[in-house]
Amino acid sequence: MSAWKQFLASDIIVNPFVVNKDFTFPYSQWATGSDNQIVGIDRFLGANVNWFNDQSTTGTLTTQYQALVYNSAKQLYYSNFLSSSTGDNVAQPVLVPGAGPSGSGDVFIGQAKSPLYDNFLQSTLTASRYWPTGSNENIVVLSIPSKLYGEYIVPNSFNWYCGTPGSSGSIVDDGQGNLFSGSTNIGNIIYTHGLAILTSQNQIYGEDLSFWSSETNMTCSFTSSMTIYETQYKCTIRESEFNFSLNPSLLSGSEGDVYGFATSSYFSPYVTTVGLYDELQNLLAVGKLAQPLPTSDTTDTTILINLDR
To answer: Where are the alpha helices (DSSP H) in 146-295?
Structure first.
């Protein structure tokens, strides 16, 4: 049997904390991991071509058009960097309605220059992004699903390599959203979207971009980040509350008389289980104490329950 007590707002505390997990996936596990669970790491080759004339497809696990991969990455992450690697600032005048002579009409004032698009910059430092604009030039996109990277890839943790870690074929991030091959900036990583984008048209460790979009002797490693919310429920038993037992084993006979020892002033009930209920008294969670806890008739008793989600 049970007794209920309503929580107050002050009895519930929610604490967020960030947890990280390291992942290393050789190419053989990009589709299905070692535990036979779907992983879903995919690669795409993008091309600066006219989709109506060239509908070539790409993708390791799924199929996309090369032209659309190129244009999607361009629009989302490089639309401010088409003519300058540090960003294209355009004039952004302010419209003032009815500010013309004698209120004759609207006018634009000021020539403040700022980026036109939100390109998901990964650092507060001056961005450096190169985008290939020549006909038939390529990019490579490595796509990591959110179920693996969580909320974002931890900066300075990404490594995409052939052979062994730290070998001459490693592509790593610098913690500021840039990808490097040795000391050469070859692309960018979008930590919050799980995307590594190779844009350099020079060979990377002696291989062109088609190699990085199709080679199978590869491994991808990174650290994921996820915020877990721990909710703490403070169950307080006042000295005047729950000082009798509802255990049916204390009843004797067909009349339901209480055993004499249970009516003694020295008798103190014990708590063994705490249940959490919703407003409709549906049981949501059960907490078992390691050992029975006696209640007190002289001081408050507090039981703390922690739930992670």
So the answer is: 146-149, 209-212
Q: Which long-range contacts (CB under 8 A, 24 or more apart) does 213-217 make?
A: 213/43, 213/44, 213/45, 213/58, 213/140, 214/43, 214/45, 215/27, 215/162, 216/27, 216/28, 217/27, 217/162, 217/163
Confidence band (pLDDT; 50, 70, 90) for 295? confident
pLDDT digits (tens, 9 = 90+) for 75-95: 999 999 998 888 887 767 777
- Token readout for 110 is 């000021």
Smallest CA-to-CA distance from 90 within 112, 118, 119, 121 is with 112
For the four alpha carbons of 262, 268, 272 and 275, in that order, the dihedral sign comes to positive
Would you say residue 246 has pLDDT above 80? no
Quick count: other Cβ atoms within 10 Å of Cβ 274? 17
* Nearby residues of 128 by Cβ (< 8 Å), 6 or more positions away: 85, 86, 178, 185
**Predicted model pTM:** 0.75
Sequence-separated (6 or more) residues with CB below 8 Å from residue 163: 169, 217
Residue whose pair of structure tokens reads 């403040």 in the numeric block:
112
Contact yes or no for 176/187 (Cβ under 8 A)? no
CA atoms lying within 13 Å on the CB side of residue 154: 14
pLDDT for the residue 162: 84
